[in-house]
Amino acid sequence: MSTSNRVPLCQLHELIDGHSRGFDPRGIGRDTVFVVRRGEALHAYRDACPHQGGTPMAWRKDAYLNGDGTRIVCHAHGAQFDIGSGVCVLGPCLGQALEPIKIEVAGNGTVFLMPDNKETPQ
Ligand code: FES
């Protein structure tokens, strides 16, 4: 696969286990992608709630999780999502899901947003 338009997001060690972080790969002035780290697993989604037309989900920078870090939360109306699958398990969009984003960790620890994502700059 071509790696020409993959976008570096950060280094793996900058993602804290049990926390989330937002990114602005298109440089539009707000985060449109977020990543949750659980151990060695990274889960990346578009910052767009399925409840209401892609509403941004964090109430402040990088705040995509509930208090104990067990679920992703949309702070607009409180929908909760399973971190691993992105499926809404509680709230107004029950059964709908976040849009997964393809990322990859290179050998040097750089986390890349892969091509063919809507969030990859063209
Ligand atoms: S817009 Fe996310 S729960 Fe309503």
Task: Walk me through what this model shows.
Residues 7-111 form the Rieske domain. Keywords: 2Fe-2S, Iron, Iron-sulfur, Metal-binding. This is Rieske domain-containing protein. Pfam families: Rieske (PF00355). With 122 residues, the chain is mainly beta. The protein has a single domain (17-102), classed as Rieske [2Fe-2S] iron-sulphur domain (Rieske Iron-sulfur Protein). The protein is built from no helices and nine strands. The chain has strands at residues 7-11, 20-23, 33-38, 41-46, 71-73, 80-82, 88-90, 103-105, 110-113. The strands form three sheets. It has a three-stranded antiparallel β-sheet, with no helix packed on it. The model has no long low-confidence stretch (mean pLDDT 93). The chain binds FE2/S2 (inorganic) cluster.
Give me a quick take on this structure:
With 122 residues, the chain is mainly beta. It has no helices and 9 strands. Helix content is 0%, strand content 30%.
Gyration radius from CA atoms, angstroms: 14 Å
How helical, in percent, are the residues? under 10%
Shape: globular
CATH top level class name: Mainly Beta
> For the record, what is the CATH homologous superfamily label?
Rieske [2Fe-2S] iron-sulphur domain
CATH architecture descriptor: 3-layer Sandwich
CA distance, first residue to last residue: 16 Å
Kindly identify the CATH topology. Answer: Rieske Iron-sulfur Protein
What ligands does this structure carry? Answer: FE2/S2 (inorganic) cluster
Unreliable residue runs: none
Portion of residues in beta strands equals 25-35%
Q: Specify the oligomeric state.
A: single chain
The residue-averaged pLDDT reads 93
Major sheet attributes? 3 strands, antiparallel
Count of domains: 1
- The DSSP helix count reads 0
Structural class: mainly beta
Strand order of the largest sheet: 1-9-8
